[in-house]
Design a protein that fits this description.
The structure is a single chain. The chain has 15 helices and 13 strands. By secondary structure, the protein is an alpha/beta fold. The strands form 3 sheets. Strands 2-8-7-6-5-3-4 form a 7-stranded mixed β-sheet, with helices on both faces. A 4-stranded antiparallel β-sheet has the order 9-10-13-12, with helices on one face. It is globular and about 60 Å long.
Length: 408
């Protein structure tokens, strides 16, 4: 089964927007286009149901149903229980709240392992616990490849280790870390596995039960939806955390990790992501399937398309002696997040030429300062990042390659 790209792109109004005509979008790791289903749900909520939810009058009752539906449908796709799904304002904010909620679980002198491959969203708040009696152990990346070593991790564990925090996929390096293996190692040492899935989720939602991790986080604005952060928190774990909401919310798991309260409209609109996934599944597959099985089939469909594009781009980059690929040079176990450093020109010069070619790319450190420090790459100007997802076409990759030929 091959991805029907015409159908996929028909679900995103951006591809028919006159102001974007001719432009190729390669900064998807910073935020994807929203699918039309999300736009429609958000518009409808604001025009028909923008009231306090869960009262008995019709507009309010429907608002509550729409929000509840997003929790249930997101859980079904992730193969989790709906009580384990939490919507917050962003992944950065969600980790900040988690750090405060989890600190009382641990004693003075307990240890947490935090990787140096992370976006700062899954690093900064954990590291601040060093000021509150927790010892932070750094899991550094290989200075040449930017990859994390499982052997290095083994040497970091102690009988005081309580947590390992790391990314499913770095937003600069692009390598997909073996979450199941790392989780197994963490659990063998009595530690929790906390995964930043922000870089990986745009390329396929996880199967939480299969991964076995304790906490998984990602951002819906990078997965075709509104600006929210999603947290999966194992239901056996949340009861051990300190309530971060109002005192009378104690025990109401949906509220305990969202102290400011939920954004009603955006939570309701998040269900549009699953509308989109359902539409893609039904267009490509004829058999009935549970949401979790649909997710598995879609992941294969999306990732096979992305890998074909990624191999084409990496083949071109490997053929050049005037550019450095940051991270692994092969497509295997790699997401289509490709960071490069020009050897003969400045990043700013190359970026300017790419923009003239109507290429929307990224430039900077992308809040992933720590892996750059480990790799001795200056955070300013950082790297030039090229990131794409399943709605990207081979023609756009060719447009990118032509732009790079001139720019480099």
């Amino acid at each position: 089964m091959k991805l029907d790209l015409n159908f996929i792109r028909s679900q995103f109004t951006e591809f028919s927007e006159p102001a974007l005509k001719g432009w190729a979008f390669f900064e998807n790791a910073g935020g994807s286009y929203p699918c039309q289903q999300v736009v429609d749900r958000l518009t409808n909520f604001y025009t028909k149901n923008k009231v306090q939810p869960h009262y008995p009058y019709p507009a309010s009752a429907l608002a509550g149903e729409l929000m509840d539906g997003s929790y249930k449908r997101m859980a079904d796709y992730l193969n989790a229980d709906e009580t384990e799904i939490h919507f917050g304002p962003s992944t950065t904010q969600n980790v900040y709240v988690l750090a405060h909620a989890m600190r009382p679980m641990w004693n003075e002198g307990d240890e947490i392992i935090v990787s140096c491959q992370d976006h700062e969203a899954n690093a900064g708040a954990w590291r601040r616990l060093a000021h509150r009696g927790i010892k932070v152990i750094e899991w550094h990346v290989n200075p040449e490849t930017g990859m994390l070593s499982a052997d290095d991790l083994d040497r970091l564990f102690s009988d005081k280790t309580k947590m390992v925090a790391y990314p499913h996929c770095s937003n600069i390096i692009g390598y997909i870390n073996p979450v199941k293996e790392i989780t197994r190692k963490a659990h063998e040492h009595g530690a929790l596995s906390v995964v930043d899935g922000v870089g990986m989720a745009p390329h396929g939602f996880p199967d939480i039960k299969d991964l076995g991790t304790d906490i998984y986080l990602f951002s819906t604005y990078k997965t075709f939806g509104p600006h929210l952060g999603v947290m999966y928190v194992n239901k056996d774990l949340i009861g051990k955390m300190e309530n971060q909401s109002h005192f009378f919310k104690e025990g109401i798991t949906r509220s305990m990790l969202v102290p400011a309260g939920p954004d009603h409209a955006q939570i309701a609109a998040a269900s549009g992501i699953l509308d989109y996934f359902d539409a893609v599944y039904e267009h490509h597959f004829k058999s009935e399937a549970t949401p979790a099985r649909r997710n598995k089939a879609l992941n294969k469909l999306f990732q096979e398309h992305e890998k074909e594009l990624l191999e084409h781009l990496l083949n071109f980059l490997r053929s050049r002696d005037d550019v450095r690929i940051v991270g692994p040079e092969q497509a295997e176990n790699r997401a289509p997040i490709v960071s490069i450093i020009p050897k003969n020109k400045s990043i700013e010069e190359v970026y300017a030429v790419l923009t003239k070619h109507k290429l929307m790319t990224g430039m900077g450190n992308f809040y992933a300062v720590r892996p750059l420090l480990d790799m001795n790459i200056p955070a300013n100007p950082g790297v030039l990042r090229i990131s794409f997802i399943h709605y990207t076409s081979m023609e756009e990759i060719d447009q990118l390659i032509e732009g790079l030929k001139e720019a480099l």
